[in-house]
Amino acid sequence: MKKKSAVMVAGIMACMTVMTGCGTDKTGDTGDTGKKSEEYLVGFANNSDTYNYCAKFRTYLKEMTEAKGIDITVTDAGGDTNVQNGQIDDFIVQNVNVVSAISNDLDGSIPALEAAKSAGLPYISFLTSVSGGDDYDGYIYVGSPNYDAGKAQGKYLREAFPEGASILYFTGAPNDQQYIDRKQGLADALKDSNITILGEYNVENAKDLGMSTADDCLLSYDSFDAIVCQNDDAALGVVEALKSAGKQDSIQVLGVDGSDDALESIKNGEMTMTSLQDAKAQAEAGAQIFEDLKNGTDPADIEDVSIPFKIVTAENVDEYLK
After folding, report:
1. Predicted local confidence at residue 38, as pLDDT
2. How far apart are CA 145 and CA 305, in angstroms?
3. Global confidence as pTM
């Protein structure tokens, strides 16, 4: 097993322009037969462009990679693991030099990892992990510790409700490693506190389900103090439900990611807090790994990259707004 240590990354590149379109985006003329012999080509399979944070990351990664003179092919799996695995198979047929992805599923993405391994290609997994990755020397993880995101939410809750509170927990899919880690971080931070989780609901980290589930909970519970979400999209849906019910000022809403919409919501006094992932720093680290690989660095010698989450509230949101 390749032994790696976490590398803390600092420094953020200048703001990038927003990319349009959701389909395949290929840089360079590769023709119908794959990449030219002199090209170095990276394949990146986004899990879903519908998630604001993932779309933001995709934009930064593409532009930072191109800035280093490296061609990159970008696809959108639309949240479908089988589609993403097929896209990675296509990358391999196209003779890419590196396979990368926001891997859609801890276990479901194993076939993609195995395909890259069989082809002798590095596999860079952004934001999420793949089971068995550490058993392959070509596997490199770049992201932020999801445990810390949940822990940051718990820390905030303890400070906001020192006498205790009742909360609801809105999550993503239970088989997602992000779900597992963020939940554990929250649970550990709330240990020995007077904060009680009244119920947990899988809203698939989606805005529409966050809104409809919040509507249902407002009818089902006599009272609660906060809704804690595992991502910002669900939190933004909760905000819409609370606004419609006239409960916005009495129930706090917490998210994860630090999407542009979430930051604006915090600025407007709607969402209360988010654990911000630094998409620019993550993308910068990924582009640097691509360059190192292009220059001949053995992937076994490249360490995983861990970029800390940042707590954003109304007090400091202006620092992170564009």
Report:
1. 61
2. 10
3. 0.77
